[in-house]
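Aim 2 progress update. The chain analyzed this quarter is reproduced below.
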Amino acid sequence: MEADGSKRRRVGGYGAPFWSRDGRELLVNSFFEPTETTVMNLEQVSEARLEVPGYRTFSVPSWVGPGTIVACIGTKEESDTIALLDVGKPSQARIIEVLWKRGEDLDVKPRTPVYHTESRRCFFVGGEPNKRTLYSVKRGGSRRAIQVEPGGYNDRLSGLTFSPDGRYLLFGANRPAQPQEKMKP
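Predicted structure tokens:
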């Protein structure tokens, strides 16, 4: 629509929309798993469903930069990998780099990944049966995820995003208030 509210038109399906940083594209994510994600190009007025050959998408992917997202993917019924994806052709998305894969050293279900380009660090929620914990992994490093907070909580930790200036990692949770420490990405 125009700034004054005129010329409104429907441009996509039902789901949670996320703007790209340049404002030219939207990710529209379904509310069930595996997640159905549609990539919408607002300049070309086109949309295509995200398809990664051999994989399914889970949780909520997020934008990294133009044509690039970070997503939780898996080959079975749940996610086990976090990867950077090239979505220039959403119906033929390709893996740019695997950032983390579930293993014996950290057997958690990854959720809601976000990527901080300046620090080359990915943050994600690691889900276990009775708790959720924040983790990070550095691109180009060992792919070993480290715990960002001292311990997990039995809560609904989700919705990771960065503040507009990229200095703070923001999230939603229904946990008790804790003294806050400044986290550096």
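The mean pLDDT is 88. The longest strand covers residues 56-65. These observations will guide the mutagenesis experiments scheduled for the next reporting period.
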